[in-house]
Fold:
Amino acid sequence: MSIPVSIVKCKDYSSNEVDAAVKQAIELVGGLNANFLKGSRVLLKPNILSVSGSETGINTHPAVVQSVIKYIKDAGGEPLVADASGFVSSTNDALKISGILDVCQKEGIDAHPFTKDGFEEVQVQDGEIFKTLYVAKDVVNADFIISLPKLKTHVQAKYTGAIKNFFGVIPQKQRKHLHRMGTFKSLSAGIVDIYSVVKPDFVLMDAIVSMDGNGPSKGDLRQTGLILASPDCVALDSVVCRMIGFKDGEVLYIDGADKRNLGQSNLSKIDVVGGKLSEFNVRFKKPRIQGGNVPSFMIDFVFYLYKKEPVVDKSKCQACGYCVKVCPTSAIILDDVAHIISDDCIECYCCYEVCPHEVIDLKRSFIYKLMSKIKGRKV
Ligand code: SF4
Ligand code: SF4
Structure:
C-alpha cells in the first residue's frame, strides 16, 4: 500500500489562506480520524528553535500552528503545544517571541516548555547511540502526536523537517552528547533513536517560507509557498528532500528510519497527492556541513560557554523536596537543604521550573555573562 503525502500551494501566512491549505493538505491524505481524536490529548510539536520572531523564518509560523489547533478542536480533540528550544535559548521566551504563545492563548489551549511536565526514562529498542533516553512526559502521555516542522536545511544534519523536529524532546545533556560525537553519521543515528521512541501519528509541514543554505537559523529565506502533510514523517521527509534537490540516501537519518521500519522512504511506494512532485521542484542551496572536523575541545568550549547549570541558593532553600520528586535522575539530595550532584544532572531544568520558593537559578558561565554585559544583554 502506498503512503500518501500531500502538497498544497499556500501563498502567504494570512489566516484564510493557511486555514484552507491546512484543511486541504490534511484531507488529501485521508483526514484525521475524528472518532479517534474526540477527547484525545493531541500533542502539537512545532519547531521552536530560538527566541525569534515569525519574520525570521526560524520557527514554525504561528499561523500554521493556529490553523492546526483549530482543526483539532473542530474534530473534538484536546490540543496542547509543547517544545524545548535550542541550548542557547529560553523556551518560555521563544514561545512568546515566536508568536506561538499568543495564538495558543487566543485558542484557549496550553502551551509550555517540556520542562513543565518533566522527563521520563524510556528504553530505545535497537538503539544505535542510546540504549535509554529521557523523553518529555508530554510525548509519553500524548494520545496522538503531530509534528509541525519548518522546511529548512541544517549545517549538521543537512536537512531538518518532520523527523529531526523531535530532537527537542530530550534534555540538553543528551542532545549535547550527540553533538559532541561530532560526526554526521552519529548525529543521524541518534536522530533515528530519538524518533523511534516518539512514534508520531501525523506531520504537517510549514513550507510557506522556508530556509536554504546554512540553516537552521543562519540560512536564506525562500518563498516556497507550500503546506505538506502525511501520516508518515519518513515519507514526507523523503518527498521534501527530493523536491529541494537532495539525492536519495543523502540525508542519512531518513534511510536510517526506514531501515528500522519506522516509515517509508522509497519514493516508488509513496503516493504524492495534490500534484506531481516534479511540479514543485525547487533547487535549494546546500548547507556547509559543520561538526565533523571541529576539534572536540572547541565543541566543549561552546557547550561550556552556553551551559546553564541549576544552582540552589542554600541560604533560602526551604527543604520542601519538590525538586527531589521531579528530578528524573535522582540528582538532588535533600538533607537540611537541597544539593545537586552535577555529574548526575541531565540539564532538564525541571527543578528550576518546579521550585515553589524560586531559589533555584540557572547559572551561566563567567565568559557568557561577560559577553552579555559587553553587549548590554540580559543574562
Ligand atoms: S524545591 Fe526549592 S525550596 Fe524546595 S527543596 Fe528544592 S530547592 Fe529547596
Ligand atoms: S538536577 Fe534539576 S536540571 Fe538536573 S536533572 Fe535533576 S531536575 Fe533536571
In short: The chain has 14 helices and 16 strands. The radius of gyration is 21 Å. The mean pLDDT is 93. Residues 312, 317-323, 334, 338, 355, 357, 359-360 surround iron/sulfur cluster (ligand 1) (CB under 6 Å).
